[in-house]
Amino acid sequence: MFDAITWIAVAFAAGVVAKRYGLPPLVGYLVAGFMLNGLGAEEGPVIAALSELGVTLLLFTIGLKLKLKSLAAPQVWGVAALHMVGMVAVLVPVLLAVGKLGLPHLAGMEYGPALVLAFALTFSSTVFAVKVLEEKGEMGSLYGTIAIGILIMQDLAAVVFLVFSAGKVPSLWAVLLFALVFARPVLSWLLERAGHGELLLLFGLTLGLGGAEVFQLVDVKGDLGALLLGVMVASHPKSGELAEALLGLKDLFLVGFFLSIGLTVAPSLDMIPTVILLLLVLPLKGFLFEQLMLAFRLRARTALLGALALFNYSEFGLIVAAIAAENGWLSPDWLAIIAITLALSFVVASPLNSQSHVIYELFSPRLRRQERKRRIAAELEIDPGDANAMIVGMGRIGGGAYDFLVQERGLRPVGVDADPDSVAKQNAVGRNVVQGSATDADFWHRLHLDDGHIKLVLLAMPKASENVFAAEHLLKEGFDGTIGAIAKFPDDEAALRAAGVHQVFNLYAEAGAGLAQHVCSDTTLALDELEASGAEPQR
Length: 539
Known about the structure:
globular, 5% strand, 6-stranded parallel beta sheet, Rossmann fold
């Protein structure tokens, strides 16, 4: 037990270093495992148990996020399926051809192992993509939702592989698993009453891990049980909160998985040529994603940013390789090769994603020439109609500002939000809201402001950098009306004013004044309360 705690402490230190350089902490965990292996450390039962729990919870949380509606779009399932088929079709002949040249670890490779290896390399990292999208504040953007949808499709393909890789014939009792469908109302009832604290976390653990155990009892892969139990409650309003509650615990357990990879196999110098070969495949992987998205009538910017978010290898590919090695389909050395390649792919992809908007601006003329003439509905030109005000970012603040302009000022505002679900909900309650990402330079080209109707723009996005970007592009498009924006810190206020914002509302500074004004809006009541307390009111 002491050894396991020590290994986890080392993994923590390595994860902190990785994060310091803008990389996902799992890169540090892999490096820590290799370092400990080199010092003679062994996996041990605790790390092995954490590894198994981490993978199971990962699949359960994927099930919680699985919304069939989000996967139904052709630009999601079509791109995911064609990309996987295309990459396998290219990689298998390449691996076999290079193997005939005698490259270490590929020499003598046969068709079956090459197929499994190519399949593992088709996956992109969910962890990396979510991290990038969250840091850029673009989780709800069109390219962000498409990228996440593609990743979920890939994860489902991996789950199918995991199920069939078990090599077991389900027992006759497995037919009883269909009865779980009738347990859905009970699970929803329990989730509703689990509250928001430790009971919610305990419910998630019980459902995910318990579901895996139930499936294993009838000789069905437990990971499938975890996924399906997650899907059964995915439509519940609290499924997102449950996924958030499990996030930290899942990531903690996955530390065991990444550590176990490094502790199981050690890297060697003869792996370097193979790692370089796999890294050279990355541009092909990204290019294929971009071309497929263009073929499905997405704009060049959406295609490029989506491809960059998926421009890496995946921890799921590592899981597939681990199962293949366990079944004897791949040499255990491939775990080290894929782990090293995975980490280096993050190193390559991180700066590309941090500068993705700059890259697009640099190559936009050439990229736009590749666009199809027809576009999907979410990529069409945006006409604000007869609106005379615009609110960008329709969260709680934006929604409140919208209602104020309508009810108190008699204006006709139009709202803008990047999240399609949010747009649908806003329109359902009678607000005029269009979908668009204000951090998309092309959005401002697609938005018709040249008629001069809109005289007021309020920027209510949560990040100051997003509001700065929007203000700068508003002015580039010739907007000559009033621009207002929200901020949280004094330096944000300065940046917004430098970008051309006329009025800045500091949320923290104004919240206290707003609270006092709201409570004391009835002056008579306020004075009566003061007098009753014995204080001398100021009249």
